[in-house]
């Protein structure tokens, strides 16, 4: 995010210093012309990998990821060639004979617009795959849904939309840097909004997530203290009906029931599929299959069902007359009021208050 904000600052620097007369005064004019300020081909990859880093704090750049930065690197090389030819070889304006800042060339602006649009779609897709599979691995998902990410994507879309409006208006009117003050103002406001939004919603993911953008059936998850070889595939498709299990899977199901009913592992608000699989000495992918087929539920629903049943048993003991419902819910493994109310309604078809009025008058 810091890199994105830095690139954004560079983006409107030429416009700001232009009002200070830099384009009309040497050596500032050449400095603006020969120094690339608008790294349009870098903004897209930065936003995309920022999204990935949120969902996977252990993300590290590898060779395949570096390929995404090749267009930006090529533009830097192109900028260096311009400097070498004009300043060292020709000693005059060659590439820049037209007096046009290379950053504002139509081909470069269009290519940057397309690049950022593509990477924005990729980031959105990556987040959607995360949301589709999170209920399979986390027992409490509220803190890890990143509800502000859609607003982040929306702010980025607004940046592109405003830029598109400027481009269209440029076909009709003279959109010089004086007439586009409102565009850069809107751009700055969006950047402030993105910065405040991202830093005020900083949450470290409970598990590590990665996937292929074309994935339709499974994603890959690991514990935060893992190494690359410990990622396991987790299906995104949930079973809504129970299915017959093999003898091997039945043993795992029995062990799971023991952990739930005797050890009451569901009381741990940070319980994850990966952690539970380690306690059962099995693979998280296999355990996910047992839960999906053996119970006809995802991991989140199964754990929350046991939590709700425990809440009901505590209410049956009259504990709600001594404690608030929320404190009981927290003691039973929930970590947010919204999650508790939603899970209670899903299991009982009543809100907690309605359930007490109906069954414990």
UniProtKB/TrEMBL annotation:
The keyword Transcription regulation applies. The keyword Metal-binding does not apply. SMART domains: HTH_ARAC (SM00342). It comes from the Bacteria. This is AraC family transcriptional regulator. PANTHER family: ARAC-FAMILY TRANSCRIPTIONAL REGULATOR (PTHR43280). The chain crosses the membrane at residues 36-55, 67-86, 106-124, 152-175, 181-200. Residues 250-358 form the HTH araC/xylS-type domain. InterPro entries: Homeodomain-like_sf, HTH_AraC, HTH_AraC-typ_CS. Keywords: DNA-binding, Membrane, Transcription, Transcription regulation, Transmembrane, Transmembrane helix.
């Amino acid at each position: 995010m810091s890199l994105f904000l830095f690139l954004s600052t560079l983006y409107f620097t030429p416009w700001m210093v232009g009002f200070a007369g830099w384009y009309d005064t040497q050596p500032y004019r050449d400095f603006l012309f020969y120094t690339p300020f608008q790294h349009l081909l870098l903004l897209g990859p930065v936003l995309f990998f920022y999204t990935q880093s949120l969902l996977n704090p252990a993300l590290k750049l590898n060779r395949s990821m570096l390929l995404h930065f090749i267009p930006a690197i090529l533009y830097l090389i192109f900028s260096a060639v311009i400097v070498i030819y004009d300043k060292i070889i020709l000693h005059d304006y060659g590439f820049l004979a037209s007096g046009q800042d290379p950053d504002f060339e139509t081909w470069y602006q269009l290519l940057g617009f397309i690049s950022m649009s593509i990477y924005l779609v990729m980031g959105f897709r990556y987040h959607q795959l995360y949301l589709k599979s999170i209920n399979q691995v986390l027992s409490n998902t509220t803190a890890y849904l990143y509800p502000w990410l859609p607003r982040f994507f929306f702010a980025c879309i607004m940046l592109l939309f405003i830029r598109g409006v400027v481009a269209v208006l440029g076909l009709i009117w003279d959109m010089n840097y004086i007439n586009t003050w409102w565009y850069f103002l809107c751009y700055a406001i969006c950047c402030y909004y993105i910065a405040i939004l991202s830093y005020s919603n900083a949450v470290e993911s409970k598990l590590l997530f990665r996937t292929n953008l074309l994935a339709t059936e499974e994603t890959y998850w690991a514990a935060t203290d893992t190494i690359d070889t410990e990622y396991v595939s987790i299906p995104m498709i949930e079973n809504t009906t129970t299915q017959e299990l093999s003898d091997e899977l039945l043993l795992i199901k029995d062990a799971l029931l023991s952990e739930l009913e005797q050890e009451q592992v569901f009381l741990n608000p940070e319980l994850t599929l990966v952690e539970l699989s380690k306690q059962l000495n099995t693979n998280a992918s296999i355990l996910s299959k047992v839960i999906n087929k053996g119970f006809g539920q995802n991991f989140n629903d199964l754990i929350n069902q046991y939590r709700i049943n425990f809440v009901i048993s505590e209410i049956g003991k009259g504990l709600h007359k001594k404690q608030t419902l929320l404190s009981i819910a927290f003691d039973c493994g929930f970590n947010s009021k919204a999650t508790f109310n939603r899970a209670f309604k899903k299991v009982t078809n009543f809100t907690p208050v309605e359930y007490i009025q109906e069954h414990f008058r």
